[in-house]
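Figure S4 source data
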Amino acid sequence: MDRFVQLAGVAGDVSRETFSRLERFEAEFKRWAERINLSAPSTLPDLWSRHILDSAQLMPMSNGAKTWLDLGSGGGFPGAIVAILLRDRLGASISLVESNKKKGAFLQTTLNSLGAPAKVFMVRIEDAPGKVAQPDIVTARALAPLPLLLELAEPWLINGARALFHKGRDYAAELDKCHDAWRFDLVEHRSVIDDESVILDISRLERR
């Protein structure tokens, strides 16, 4: 299938310019990955669908949200992809928190070159509250088990942000481990990229 058609089917209405920027990001990712460890080498041939489209599927779930926060951004999934897709959304922005300086430099350099409305904070997630403005949406992908993820995101979620967390096949067990400590509203979105994965849409978080 044509890549642009693939992207539009996953992310919704996107421009050809946005598509071009995503392809440029893909090329830069592969170039930097030759020098620093951005992802497992085995995932590079399937970068477009496995990482870029998987990240882009968050956009239709966002209800037009303008302010985002991505925790543990790593090589930029989903944060960098969201940043590029937000470029066409007037007044939108995303903060990316990544403590690894080499990965942070890649994100900052590449997203700046693409004109994406992103700011990279090269700090530990635990040190980010107070530095990062309150967002509408918090994202994280392949970062931590859900109980720890909720603790990391708590400073923003208890103040009204929604979480959109990518999770794999064991997500139900992770949810079970949260119920003694947390209360929240949950919507499970089945991934359109991977049949065994979901996006957990969490709101109204509070401690029990």
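Figure S5 source data
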Amino acid sequence: MNGTVILGGGIAGLATAFALHQSGSTDWTLIEGSSRWGGKITSVHDHGFTIEGGPDSFITTKQGAVELCRTLGLGDQLTGSNTGKSATTYIWSGGRLHPMPEGMMLMAPTMIVPFLRTPMISWAGKLRMGMEFFVPRARGDQDESLASFVRRRLGNELLNKIAGPLMGGIHAADPERLSLKSTFPMFLQMEKKHGSLVRGMMKRAKHPVKPAAGQPAAQRTSMFMSLRGGLQQLADALVATLPQENLRTGLRALSVSRYADRYRIDLSDGSSLLANDVVFATPSFVTADLLQTLDSVLADRLRAIRYVSTATVSLGFRRGQVAHPLQGAGFIVPQSEGRRITACSWSSVKFAHRAPDDCVLLRVFIGGALAENLAEQEENALIQLAREELQIMLGIDATPVVAKAYRWHKANPQYDVGHADRIAEIEQSLLRHSGLHLAGAAYHGPGIPDCIQSGQDAAQAIAARLPHAARA
């Protein structure tokens, strides 16, 4: 008999276990189907390179990840992105790289002259964007896709060349389906408050968000942070802190059903566990399969959250083999350009300690909602594809010192239009099953801080269900 069973050993499941452990609870078990902890967080050290297979950083405007790192004693390992050197992002357009116009904040300019000078946007596109000041506010509070919003306010050219590949790419999403309300609600708020997205962005640039109280001065300018030895340090530190007898890998849950006033979890080794609480830190479609017999309506609602496949390819080169100056963060590629990659991050420029001093590390992104089939190829084919594209775009024809591809099959949840309503329905269905909890990337944010928060929320909900004496 277990008080709590946590299914899924990614960052959400680990955060749930850690929060329970910190509260003094020992009556829990964390189960992971694979042989390793961390989920999509995976770091490899090879020939002096630090390669991230999944996420390479976390946002600092949500403090959960930074705070957890410090709690685990990793504060001295925190490193900010090198935005102070150059925050430039490039866009592949018309067969060459163009720097993002100075003053662009996500998808709107805060400085007019640099935007007018860029050759990447036609004069018709610039004029259409200038008309944004006169576009009326949307009526009502209905959800809207990113593409619909940008097209309505800024025009089709800005959508196709900047906003779509940049902001849709963050979620590996199709801009025509991506929910603005659930991913970038600040733009809706700007439209309501200022009547113009450009006007709102300009005011925001003049009055930036102040850093959190107590945040070290050296870290205040960085919106994104990582760990010197790779994000795997975070997962490893969590596992090392937890009691090993509560952790079980290589074991899958097959189903979850009612057993009197508890839940029975049937496992792949033929055994079963009984629990008062079950935390599903698994992809929503996996959770749906586990709950199919218990509640088919809830299962169907969970399956309605789509997932897409992506891949990353990291390539390390000798610095002398790369002619491009690599001054910036990397580049994005609009779908209209017909290339086979969606973006390339200059990892060793973005973060220190990612490559030896005489080398550079580049990370190529493949697949997503608009090109899933490309991400499903074998590792060698992905590496070859990435090398061919970088030869065309950056002129690199050298053999890499290191090359590593990671495939993430159906690993990226899609926040389609109506996502908030879908989650509300799921949570309403969940109320019929006291003791069942959801955590992870599919619900209230896909980033590392979001997943950590979801795990902490699940642990808090479990603690609230315990009798006062048991919590004391």
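The first strand starts at residue 2 and ends at 7. Confidence is low (pLDDT under 50) at residues 468-472.
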